[in-house]
Each structure stands twice: as C-alpha cells, then as structure tokens.
Design goal:
Layout: H1 5-17, H2 20-27, H3 31-45, E1 50-53, E2 56-59, H4 61-84, E3 93-99, H5 101-115, E4 122-128, E5 142-145, E6 154-169, H6 170-173, E7 188-190, H7 200-206, E8 214-216, H8 219-227, E9 233-236, E10 248-250, E11 259-267, H9 274-290
Length: 292
Amino acid sequence: MHIPWDDLQIFLAVAESGSLSAAAKRLRITQPTVSRRVAELEAKLGEPLFVRSVEGVSITSFAERLLEPARRMAEWAAEADRAAERRDMAPRGLVRVTAAPGVCWELLAPFAAWMKTRLPDVRLEVLAAIQNLDLSRREADLALRFSGPSQRDVLSVASVEYEVAAFAADSYVKTLPRRYGLSDVAWIGWAPSLDHLSPNPELRRLIPGWMPSFTTDDFLVQMRAAEVGLGAIFLSRLRHRFSAPTNLVELKLQLPPLRRSMHLLCAKSALAIPRVRAVADLLARELERAGR
C-alpha cells in the first residue's frame, strides 16, 4: 500500500503534538482539514490511528508501527528540500528561528530590526516556543537553546556562557528586611504545567516547603510581575547590544553559582543555504560579542 507523504506528515504532527488543533497550528492548516485528512487515512488503512479524549489524542498500537518510519520520512523530506536549494545565490528569502519566548523578546525581535540593514532581502520569522522544534525536519532553520545539539545532524554554530541572578523592582527590595535570605523573598515562578522549568526545581531544593508567590505560563507576564513589585525573578546577567532597559535591580543573596549556556543550533545541511548561513553568521557574532 502506498501512503502519500502529505498524509504521513499530518499523522506525525497529530501524534507528536497530542491534539488536532496543535497539529493544525504546526502545519499551518485548519483543524477541520487535519480532522478530515486523519479520518481519510484511517479509512484507507482500515485501522484507527488515534484514541480521542477530552485531553486530546493518543496513538493506537497500530499507529505505533507507523511512527518511526514517518519520523525518518520527515527528516529525508527536509533533507531533500535543502538539497534542492540553490547554493550560488545571494542571501534572500525566509529564515525561521526558534527560541524560548524570553529570548525571542529580548534578543531576536530587536536583532531582526538590526539585521534588515545588513541583509535587506532576508526576512526573519521568530517562533517562540517552550518545546523544541525539530531542526532535522526543517520545522525551523536555526534555534537558540540552553543545551547543545542532541541529534547527529545538528551542530552548534556558536555558544555563550553566562550567569543567572535574582532581580526585583527597587520598590519591592525596599519592603525586604535589612538582612534578607532566600526564604524572605517572594518568588515569581512557573505555573504547574511548566513546573519542570528553571527556577522552580532549584528554588524547591534550596527552600524547604517553597511555594511561588505568583505563577504564570508566560515569561513576559513574569517580567511584568517583577517590574510592578510582585516579587523576584531569575534573569541572565548577560548583556548585549539589544538589551532592553529595566527597573529591576539585582538582589544581594548568598546563592550557589548559577551558570547557564546558550547555543545557536542548525542542521548541518541547512548551513549550505546562503540565507541561513548569513543569519547564522550574524547571530553567532552577537553571541560571541556578548560573551566577551
């Protein structure tokens, strides 16, 4: 039986995202289209692929057999797209860069404006996501992540190490005792759905019985909460040419060293595409400059 790649692409998006709506967003088509195409594929195969529930969808045992071949096809389809790109043309067209929402807001949005004077024919699309998009499948061309590559065909173009510290609005700092410690501070943290993200686990280890004073699933809301004096937030000490002014000041706390790293990642084959290489080179230079 021949299964068209378009059908497997939709199956894979639903299987990996866990919902029809998320798959539609990922593929940039409508949810009814996803639902219809899944139903058509199930009818063609004569087997159900998904179990529907109020929480979303989960794959059946039959669908499990299709999952890994579909993933391999996705990687090969992306590789074919890259191979078909002309290598001798000037940088031109769309480059998609993904990063955590805070990095997109703080670095990538102003970088895009700065880049336009240097690469006028290149357009940047910034994808703010907590989850990692797959560079091997060309879900994005470049990624800024807090860990190095985990796939053999993805490499780190550049990286920078930096320290993390606690910051709060001066108005909040004035409400703290003259000598304050970790447990005296009201901490802004992640909502339960993102409880695994830093700094929630670290604060839970450092402060017995720790509970955040304010939670949200959005980094920009965390920043705003800190700015209006709701509590303290952990931020990078890394400064770069695009760093936005802020009213937050660093808290004087006895903390263990909190070091992080940021990596600019790209699929090896994508670096041969002129527009991707041009953007990667500019971003790499900015990371190296910030780390000096």
